[in-house]
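seq as requested:
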Amino acid sequence: MQKPIVKAFFDQGTWTFTYVVYEKPNTPCVVIDSVLNYDPKSGRTKTKSADEVIAFVKEQGLTVDWILETHAHADHLSAAPYLQKHLGGKIAIGSHIQDVQKVFKGIFNLESEFPTNGSQFDYLIEEGQDIYAGNLTIHPLFVPGHTPACMAYAIGDAIFVGDTIFMPDVGTARCDFPGGNAKTLYQSVQKILSYPDDTRLFMCHDYPPTDRPIAYEATVGEEKRKNIHVHQGVTEAQFVEMRNQRDQTLEMPVLILPSIQVNIRAGHPPPAEANGKTYLKIPFNVL
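struct tokens:
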């Protein structure tokens, strides 16, 4: 089985990991879940996190074939278009992004010409429809629950799980966003945990509950033994009850409103208005 090299980049502002996955230097690679730095107080963006990825890709002599999103994130803006401009590659996401676009077009009352067919992305991925980066095979897994469109990507002995599951002492993703479902998430986690125990799992985020260092990698076996929400023995009914109760106590992510509007556009901002400026919407008493 392939054992790809995985380089992780941590964005402290959003607790997000971006991954560059490749076979060896001077080969094709994929970038998963990039971050565009955004200041919610000023509405300004910076490219510090993305520039770190670009520097590494160039240093290793890599060629970017794919810029993958696990889902339309609610906690950070995607830097996919910026990376594509500097490194090339196709921006891709799971085909169910269309369902998410339909929901949020209504919530944000987006422009009538905003398409909800996923055409903002270069490629829409279907479950089981493998894609390739050189000798690496990327096997997509449909893992809804956190959102209706979440994907995980199995590459050799590694799975990039998005927000489906976290480090064992953190648990699992919330399910109270539009289209989320705790029962569905439980089933998606079981799909991931059906892989061999030594399969490496790479998280999209880490929120340490103690003073332990930031971490991003666990194994299927570790999750089955230790995950505080879905360890072996936890039934679907128990999980759904826990998840629904816990989600009622959680605040909305700081960047959910700007993130969703940008990420359902494949990382592009809304179209400029008559004065040449771009604006994001704040729905009042909606979410």
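The chain has one domain: 5-263.
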